[in-house]
Design a protein that fits this description.
Elements (H helix, E strand, L loop, with lengths): L9 H21 L4 H18 L4 H14 L1 H19 L2 H12 L5 H16 L2 H18 L4 H17 L5 H10 L3 H31 L4 H14 L8 H11 L4 H18 L5 H6 L12 H6 L9 H20 L1 H9 L6 H19 L2 H18 L4 H12 L10 H10 L3 H4 L4 H16 L11 H14 L1
């Protein structure tokens, strides 16, 4: 904030954000209009407020551009995952995984197995998007083949990928949350383990119970139809598992996600040519848009035609507008103004935990991106934690729970749009089944109430936080 600008009042914030949320809800729910239009309109709502508060238009425009620039890695990964899913379907990789899964995974144990497979993939690769775009898509296909409702399977996939993502030292969200809070990555992960593991066990049990319910109604005839359709349209082979193995190994060795996923997509085109007998032009074209295989099974056709970069362009527009919207909110000071006014109500560790998680969720809701949430939350609340002599590990943990685990719940956020597009299930449909996210947040609040002070075991220097913060800003 400069000398000629001022923070917005609560009335002004309420009018702007209330109008934006009404637009977003009306556009997506009532009128069936794309959320991109709501985010586009939201830019001008915040710009108008910023001009009224004394900001120059050029500064506001630069803030929007900076928000987009800060999330450029997410944009590149989004496009590369779109290419990868297209070539992996065309190359028979996804169909082979679905085929083997339908023939080997017990329907009664499928849901907890899906959680486990996706969590291990995300833990090894450090990316929830990459895990959802590979193992997640395969689990969706297997689940639909077994007749399990797609939203339930999507909930199991998301529970797995977010668990693995937030405990992986390779994860960008882990690095961001710890760096912005001034703590080291290993200790940040270690502090999250007790709550994360207990919540993970709760989630496995819940999906195990759900699996018992749905597994008893499995139509084995439908499974046989799908496996026969896959075998008749694709060359099913264990060789098809090589590209996923290569991608997972490279990501696990801390190689950058964008070139690795793109390399995996190139392998998919090669597999389409050499093992599926496709024309080389068509093998490459699948990176842009898939042609439905016309298996005669609607669910399978829909799944096998959802990949390619073209199908990610709508999500790309949402992420660009969302990142810019978050940059404008930061520049105008909307989240800062809310945090300053709410800070007075923080009296103990429980209220501090609740407020941190709520602030991180608000970063996703209003900033439309996990990066916005994980950057702004520690910035806004670091001084509050220091004033209350609370360990910064508590700040990093709560920022991660409120930011990473809720990012897929917002239909217009980068994660919400990506997960809905990749898994083929709308955010509102899979939201009730994100059981790991709910259990982690509930357990974190209960721990802060029943055992306050458990996070205050390591002293963190303020200079270390400032140094990490400045370094991160320089890199961005």
């Amino acid at each position: 904030m400069t000398l000629n600008t001022r923070l917005p009042s609560l009335l002004q914030i309420g009018l702007v954000l209330g109008t934006f949320l009404c637009l977003a809800s009306a556009f997506t729910i009532s009128f069936g209009l794309p959320v991109q239009l709501a985010l586009f309109s939201g830019w001008f709502l915040v710009i108008t407020l910023g001009l009224y508060l004394g900001h120059a238009y050029e500064d506001l425009e630069k803030a929007a551009y900076k928000g987009i620039h800060d999330g450029m890695s997410a944009i590149l990964i989004l496009l590369s995952v779109g290419v990868l899913t297209g070539t992996w379907v065309s190359g028979g990789i996804v169909p082979s995984i679905i085929y083997f899964g339908l023939n080997s995974i017990s329907p009664l144990l499928f849901l907890p197995t899906a959680v486990l497979i996706c969590s291990v993939t995300a833990l090894a690769t450090g990316t929830s998007w990459g895990a959802a775009g590979t193992a997640g898509i395969a689990m969706m296909g297997i689940g639909q083949g077994m007749g399990i409702p797609a939203p339930v399977t999507a909930g199991a996939v998301l529970s797995g990928v977010y668990f693995g993502d937030k405990l992986s030292p390779l994860s960008d969200s882990v690095i961001l949350a710890s760096s912005m809070s001034g703590v080291k990555v290993p200790s940040h992960i270690r502090k999250m383990l007790p709550i994360s593991l207990s919540s993970y066990l709760i989630t496995i049990v819940l999906f195990g119970v759900a699996g018992l319910q749905y597994g008893q109604n499995i139509d084995l005839h439908q499974i046989n139809q799908i496996t026969l359709a896959l075998a008749s349209h694709f060359h099913i082979s264990w060789v098809s598992l090589i590209p996923p193995a290569v991608v997972i190994v490279l990501l696990a060795r801390n190689k950058p996600a964008f070139p690795v996923i793109s390399f995996g997509a190139a392998l998919g085109s090669l597999w389409a040519y050499f093992f599926q007998g496709q024309d080389p032009i068509e093998a490459v074209r699948s990176a842009w848009l898939l042609t439905s295989p016309d298996t005669g099974i609607h669910v399978l056709d829909q799944l096998l035609s959802s990949g390619g970069m073209y199908n990610m362009l709508g999500s790309l527009a949402v992420i660009i507008f969302g990142l810019g919207f978050g940059g404008l909110l930061d520049k105008v000071g909307i989240l800062s103004a809310i945090a300053q006014r709410m800070e007075k109500r923080i009296k103990n560790e429980t209220s501090l935990t609740c407020f941190t998680i709520a602030t991180a969720f608000m970063g996703n809701l209003l900033g439309s991106a996990m990066y916005v949430s994980l950057i702004l939350t520690p910035r806004l609340l670091a001084n509050t934690y220091d004033r209350m002599k609370a360990d910064r590990h508590l700040l990093s943990r709560n920022s991660e729970f409120g930011g990473t685990l809720t990012s897929g719940m917002v239909p217009w956020s980068d994660n919400g749009i990506f997960m809905a597009g990749v898994l083929g299930v709308s955010t509102f449909e899979y939201f009730p089944y994100m059981w790991l996210s709910f259990s982690c947040i509930v357990v974190a609040i209960l721990v802060s109430y029943l055992a306050p002070g458990t996070g205050q075991t390591e002293e963190i220097s303020k200079s270390n936080f400032i140094e990490n913060n400045n370094q991160l800003e320089t890199e961005v």
